[in-house]
Amino acid sequence: MPEQFLWAAEVMVNGLMAGVLYALVALGFVLIFKASGVFNYAQGVMALFAALTLVGIMDGQVPFSHLINAVFGTDIHEFGWHVPAVLAIILTGVVMVGLAILVERFVLRHLVNQPDIILFMATIGLAYFMEGMGDLMWGSEIKALNVGLPQGISETVEEVTYNWFGYGFFIDRLDIVATGIAALLVVGLTLFSQYSKQGRALRAVADDHQAALSVGISLRFIWILVWSIAGFVALVAGMMWGAKSGVQFSLSLIALKALPVLMLGGFTSIPGAIVGGLIIGVGEKLFEFSIGPMVGGATENWFAYALALVFLVFRPQGLFGEKIIERV
Amino acid sequence: MLYREAGDFKTTYSEDNQTFPIKFDRIGYYVIMFVAFLVIPFFINDYWASAVFVPFLIYAIAAIGLNILVGYTGQVSLGTGGFMAVGAYSCYKLMTSFPDVSILVHVVISGIITALVGVLFGLPSLRIKGFYLAVATLAAQFFLVWLFNKVPWFYNYSASGQISAPERTVFGIEVTGANTDAWAKYLVCLIFVTGCAWLARNLTRGTIGRTWMATRDMDIAAEIIGVNPLKAKLTAFAVSSFFVGISGALFFSVYLGSVEVGEVFGINKSFLVLFMIIIGGLGSVFGSFAGAAFMVLMPVLLKNVLVGGLGWPTDIAAHFELVIVGALIIVFLIAEPHGLAQLWRVTKEKLRLWPFPH
């Protein structure tokens, strides 16, 4: 029995680590939803797009090379230089800011005052657009991403846990680093929104668009800012997942994993995204570990949704969400 | 000069309430029905049936179903793929368990089974709405696909995990299986589309349709004036799933013949049908047809132009399709939120006044 208990504990720790990565994606959703009321389905594709761009810049790949070759019959693929990881990350950040400006200019600005669900569908359209664009620019084959993050099983953890319990835990080093980075990101974002001028403006917009406008806060600037931050969060998430399982289309599907996280935590709460991510991560790993073998496995596909659904029936606004009061 | 309502007098209430109040529309409708039933079947070949007509008709049924839920009742659903899978698998089980019963009956019963499943997954809509509901219906999508993948009873313990439609006939003419003629497939789908469109049109303009629309426009106000939200939402889920189930059953049995659930009824199918109704027009039966036609024809056209005409690789054409679909969704939402149906309405208004602008 103690052995089983230890296995369960290991599964739980791994679940916590996976949950951190879910939370990272969910964080991008929450930021945009808080500041503009837009439920951004494209967050996952933004992570994919950021990761693709990062790999493309690092390897000196020519954007749209496939398309150019097809149209002009040329045979170009690479510039032939290799950009160091730090510079590539900064350049990708610049691309994401440009993307935020474009989104504000061509999508959001025209959809002010539309019902939320229309905006949601617009972001689904944006997701398709960006996915196609990313594939056109950088090609759709699976790419390895190596930005110098540690890989493999951590021997230290294995050794320490072996000495403690007589059983070594297998934990990926990347997961540990990801947890650290996620924690830093959350602290940074919280400090930014609590203490900086822009952060205060951001919270003001989140509270009341009209009132924020009337005290001279530029809505457009805030939207660009918040989409840039979300793009940056997407970049970090894309980097983590890309280093873990390669940069490929399935990366955009982590957005779908982040949705139940949001439902559980509440759409408007940063702590909610973190706690929700951890609960989902641990919950689905434990469920797969304990119940999975009885029902044929692969329960991870739907368990998160079922959990969120059951939870919502009892508390429709999520764990930390604001209670919505409606009037006719 | 042709499109006029002058001189088109109505003397009874039933004339005033008919689906096509303008004579020109009515004649156009009969002409289209005539061409669809009595002309196309004689000219259709395998390519046109499998690339254009059959998928168009089947997607039109699914789009009508989803439009009832999203366009008329305002309950956003992303579980269409899952519900289509329910229709397909119940049709498969019925076909193999009761081989003597007509396939047409099986398709309708599959619709009813899907309706029951739809009501089950519609229950959360009583508590939650908006985004939360949209995400909740994703639970249906993933759970159902997983279920059909993992429980061998659903695919009769076949080794591949696929389901394949056995050969079935209607009045001695084969409609499922490998040797089916193009016109037989087409006519079966056409009959179901006509029935579904007729049913949807009459449901949506009756009492039940008005309770749906009241719920969509302002649910709390609707409740105050006496609409039962529980009944309105659950009937919308039931009717919508019924149509989606029929389309899933036809998709499997008549169109594809054999199906692997994860590939055919995945989340992309849900989005595809949702895009059809956004581009076609929310809350309009005609819009469901327009959207289905658009989303079926556009990839065919792109493939012919880019791959066939310009000689590009197929994967670039596929990526271009994603870019165009995404851009179109955004453009439609910004420029014309009521979709192609609204463009058609505006055109008709202009035609009625033509050549005078006012």
TrEMBL record, chain A:
Molecular function (GO) terms listed? transmembrane transporter activity
Keywords in alphabetical order, please.
Amino-acid transport, Cell membrane, Membrane, Transmembrane, Transmembrane helix, Transport
GO-annotated biological processes: amino acid transport
Which is a Pfam family this sequence falls into? BPD_transp_2
Report what the protein is called: ABC transporter permease
Member of which family? Belongs to the binding-protein-dependent transport system permease family. LivHM subfamily.
According to its UniProt record, where is this protein located?
Cell membrane
Show the CDD domains listed in the entry.
TM_PBP1_LivH_like
Q: Does the keyword DNA-binding apply?
A: no
UniProtKB/TrEMBL annotation, chain B:
InterPro entries recorded for this chain? ABC_transp_permease, LivM-like
Q: Which UniProt keywords apply?
A: Cell membrane, Membrane, Transmembrane, Transmembrane helix
How is the protein disposed in the membrane?
Answer: Multi-pass membrane protein
Where is this chain's protein located in or outside the cell? Cell membrane
A single GO cellular-component term on record: plasma membrane
Cite the CDD domains for this sequence: TM_PBP1_LivM_like
GO terms of molecular function? branched-chain amino acid transmembrane transporter activity
The membrane spanning regions, by residue number, are 27-44, 50-69, 76-95, 101-123, 130-148, 236-259, 271-296, 316-335
The UniProt entry, under PANTHER family, shows: ABC TRANSPORTER PERMEASE PROTEIN, HIGH-AFFINITY BRANCHED-CHAIN AMINO ACID TRANSPORT SYSTEM PERMEASE
Q: What is this protein called?
A: ABC transporter permease
Organism the protein comes from? Falsihalocynthiibacter arcticus
